[in-house]
Design goal:
Strand content: 5-15%
Radius of gyration: 17 Å
Number of helices: 9
Distance between the termini: 48 Å
Shape: globular
Length: 285
Amino acid sequence: MVNYCKSKKSLIGKTAIITGANTGIGYETALEFAKRGCRVIMACRNQEKANAAREKIVQATGNENVVVKSLNLDSLASVRAFAKDINETEDRLDLLINNAGAAQLPDKTTEDGLQLEMACNYFAPFLLTILLLDLLKKSAPSRIVNVSSAAAKMIHNLNVEELNKYGGWMLYCRTKLCQIYFTQELAKRLEGTNVTTYSLHPGAVNTEFLRGSTIGSWVASKVFKTPEEGAQTTIYLALEDGIDEHNGEHFEDCKRVKPYCGAKDEEKRKKLWEISEEMVGLRQK
C-alpha cells in the first residue's frame, strides 16, 4: 500500500527547482507543485521533452508560471551556468529537488574528469546545491530534497578514495549512498539557517530507468509503483510541516527510517564532503 502526501499546503508565491522534471517522478513532482500555485523551474537536459512536459503541466493546472531551463548534469560548466542564471534572475528559491538520476550509464569520463554516473547522480547535484545555498538561505524557511535509493544499502563500507572508479550496478549504489552522506553533512552545516534537507528512497518505480527492456517494462507495470506513487515521498518532504527536527534524515513511503548500515560513519561523511569539494573545483587539491 502506498502512502500519499496528505498536506494541503499552498505554494503560491513559492519557487521550486526540480531536476529531471520532464519525466517520471520529477514530472509528477512538478505537476503537483504547479497545481498548488508554485513557480516551477524544470531543470532538464532534453529541452524538447521538457517543453512538451511543460505544456502538459500548464494545460492540466492552468499555471503558466512553469519554466524550462537547460541543465546538463554531466557537465560542471552547465551546472555553474544554470546556477549563475538562477542567482541572477530569481528573487527566491524555496524548494530545491535534486531528482534527476541515471543507472548503468556507459563507463565514460566527463569533460571534468569525473566518472559519468558519479557526475550525474552525485557530483553535479552536490555542486548545484552549494551554488544555490545563498538564495535558499535568503528565502528561508526552505528545503532541499535529495532523491536517493535503497540501493545504497548494498554499500557497507564506502571507499571515499575511489569515488571515480567504475563498478557496474555497484557504482549506482555508491552514488546513492553518497547522496545520503551529503544530505547528513549538509544538514549539519546548515544548522541555524532555517534551511533543511532530507534524502529519500522513492520505492521501485516504473520509470524510464527501464527503457530498452521490454520484459522489464512489462514486469514493472505490474509490480512497481507508478511515477505518481513514487513521487509521494518527495512531495511529502517538500510540503509537510513539523519535520524540521528530522533534518538530514532519510525517508521511505513518507516515513522516517533508520540510517542504512553503510551511512553511519561521521568521519567518512566529513571526508566525502572535502573530497567532493575538490572534485567539483570548490577546493584546491
